[in-house]
Write a structure and sequence with these properties.
With 290 residues, this protein is mainly α. 79% of the residues lie in helices and 0% in strands. This is Kinesin light chain.
């Protein structure tokens, strides 16, 4: 609410000062605020109003115009209007490449990455791979291989390779993303933990159930410490599905393999990442198991 009030005051000030660019920028910011508030119809009105104003005042290929075009693309994707989102992204990309910024500018590369995300939603996996690889190559050149934006595209490639059934390639991407995020952000950062969870999903698909359990439990512990309740629930659901696939006998076999290394009284995943029988029993209870 405070953000809305401040922005409204700024808009009135800009009107009073007859600063056309400032008014349009404030309208665009108001659209972003509406997106954050979940008011997507109101956001669309603001973005369209800002876009029309920028086109008239600055031209269709000015960076401010293209920024609002990109914002509309993000909004349409959120609304499920994928064809409209694609039009906006392609327009923004063409404008940036040809006129405004060039093909290797980070804003251009982020738009390429966004197109990859969109193509995944549309089921165009081959096109998505092309976009991700292009974005990755550009980011590696411009930002370096261990920059966080580069690593997010690496993680996106991992997700895509899972969808394509290329599990070995997916594992390479996830492990690269994980190592980079651990170095850049730390092992407990939520972005790092998201990749840990993704590895758990992958290992489950590969039938590496013990490795999947390690990843899930590491992710769960980290999200619990961060009080990220939504992510905790996602990981708990993943653990429940894993234990269902394992079955009681498999769980007991895995537990027996690791209990010879000594009991631990806390859920300290340590080098092995396997909880004791008592800790797994408590986890079962938390997950609603008996």
């Amino acid at each position: 609410m405070c953000s809305r009030l401040v922005l409204a005051d700024e808009l009135e000030i800009e009107r009073d000062s007859n600063n056309e660019y400032g008014i349009l920028a404030a309208i665009d910011q108001l659209g972003k605020l509406y997106v954050d508030q979940g008011k997507l119809a109101e956001a669309e009105k603001m973005f369209l109003r800002a876009l029309q104003g920028f086109e008239e005042a600055l031209g269709p290929k000015h960076t401010s115009t293209l920024n609002t075009v990109n914002n509309l693309g993000l909004l349409y994707k959120k609304q499920g209007k994928l064809a409209e989102a694609e039009k906006m992204y392609l327009r923004a990309l063409q404008g940036c490449e040809e006129e405004a910024l060039g093909p290797k500018h980070i804003w251009t590369l982020n738009t390429v990455n966004n197109l990859g995300l969109l193509y995944v939603d549309q089921g165009k996996l081959a096109e998505a791979e092309k976009m991700y690889l292009r974005a990755l190559q550009g980011k590696e050149e411009v930002l370096g291989p261990k920059y966080t934006s580069t690593l997010e595209t690496v993680n996106n490639l991992g997700l895509l390779y899972v969808d394509q059934g290329k599990l070995a390639e997916a594992e390479k991407m996830y492990l690269r993303a994980l190592q980079g995020k651990e170095e850049a952000l730390g092992p407990k950062h939520t972005s790092t933990l998201n990749t840990v969870n993704n590895l758990g999903v992958l290992y489950k698909k590969q039938g590496k159930l013990a490795e999947a359990e390690k990843m899930y439990l590491r992710a769960l512990q980290g999200f619990e410490e961060a009080s990220d309740h939504r992510s905790c629930q996602i990981v708990r659901d993943n653990i429940s599905a894993l234990y269902t696939k394992m079955g009681e006998n498999v769980v007991a076999d895995i537990q027996q393999d690791h209990e010879t290394q000594g009991e631990r009284e806390t859920l300290d995943l340590g080098a092995q990442g396997i909880p004791t029988r008592s800790k797994r029993k408590k986890l079962f209870k938390k997950l609603g198991w008996r």
